[in-house]
Amino acid sequence: MQNTWKVYVLAIVSFLVGTSEYVISGILDKIAEDLGITISAAGQLITIFSLVYALGTPIVMAVTSRMDRKKLILYGLGLFVAANVLAFLLPGYGLFVLARAIMALGAGTVVVTALNIAAKIAPAGKQGSAIATVIMGFTASLIIGVPLGRIVADTMGWKTVFGGIAVIGVLAILVLWRTLDRIEGDKPVPLIQQLSLLKKRNVALGLSISFFWLGGYSIAYTYLSPYLLQVSGIAGNLLSPLLLAFGLASLAGSKFGGFSTDRWGVNVTLAGGMLLHILMLILLSMIAGTVTGVFLLLIFWSFAAWSTGPTQQYHMATMEPKASGVLLGLNQSMMQLAMAAGAGVGGLAIKYISLASVTWIGALGVLLAIFAAWGSLRADVKSKEKMDMAKG
């Protein structure tokens, strides 16, 4: 109970970081107009963030593996706050791109370290739920952070969004500095050994789960608004309530995923969540014009999709316990790459096939994640058998 509230503080920090990443999508038009650039150029701010996050996070986590986790999250938050201050103060597109790149490095460090800390301070048997809570904070940024950022941009200008994030970030630093105890980092893993982790079948398959699960999700989710309007035949005035319900369901799914992981284990939770994920995407492609039907499918789709999040994070964190920080960093990178890849594949599908095809192609991506999970399970069993034989 003593550390439970600290996990929620980490979730709030995760929410803040998530807002800084996703809010761009809600204010693209304002950024483009103010900086005198195209919507497409403004959209590259999302790509840049994801790439720097994906490529930079595992390097930072590897270099800082021995560092006290409390110091690391404070340093990461400091870098994140500084980047938001630069985004608020500096003029022009080029300097804003630079600020976004720095922001991504700080954000990646903060999120991975927060997940690592949550797992370490949680009571025995509650690690999955603790990780789910932190992820729930990150997910909440899509539901609350993005629309709130839009409101702030409309009333006080889009740069104020980043100024506000910087101020709240400073408060978060003070709270964590006063409340977190010193938490030892992981045992340093030499670079060659870190790279050798990717050669392990269970690690490679584990990362593949993240890539195909979130990539399949991203193929459909990135284009959800036009899909609902043009394919499902939903009226424009119903779009916002549907998207809000979708977001709320993701929170519930994330929390359930942590509970299910602790109660029934990784394998049951992964398989059940991804099978339901696939089913909802297929059914969504078959229903049009029925608001109630589309509403229910969106709820179950979001719930199923995000039930996988905490389970997969826990899976990666416990796969190689001595290198949990490195693996969490790699997994975060894989998730960022998956989102970028999913958006790209979805765009190609729309261009060369049809908008309606994104749900089917997304479902195929999740199906590949199930095959990867099955392979990962077999690899884990074989690895355990080898360990038992070695002990015997």
General description of the model:
The protein has 392 residues and is mostly helical. It folds into 2 domains: 1-185, MFS general substrate transporter like domains (Growth Hormone, Chain: A, Up-down Bundle); 189-386, Growth Hormone, Chain: A. The protein is built from 15 helices and no strands. The chain has helices at residues 4-26, 28-35, 39-63, 69-89, 93-121, 127-156, 158-179, 191-197, 201-221, 224-230, 239-264, 266-284, 291-319, 324-352, 357-391.
- Looking at the overall shape, the CATH architecture of the largest domain is Up-down Bundle
Question: What distance lies between the first and last C-alpha atoms, to the nearest angstrom?
Answer: 39 Å
Helix content: over 70%
N-to-C SSE series?
Answer: HHHHHHHHHHHHHHH
Note the topology.
Elements: H1 4-26, H2 28-35, H3 39-63, H4 69-89, H5 93-121, H6 127-156, H7 158-179, H8 191-197, H9 201-221, H10 224-230, H11 239-264, H12 266-284, H13 291-319, H14 324-352, H15 357-391
Helix pairs in contact: 1-3, 1-5, 1-6, 1-7, 2-3, 3-5, 3-14, 4-5, 4-7, 5-6, 5-14, 6-7, 6-11, 6-13, 9-13, 9-14, 9-15, 11-12, 11-13, 12-13, 12-15, 13-14, 14-15
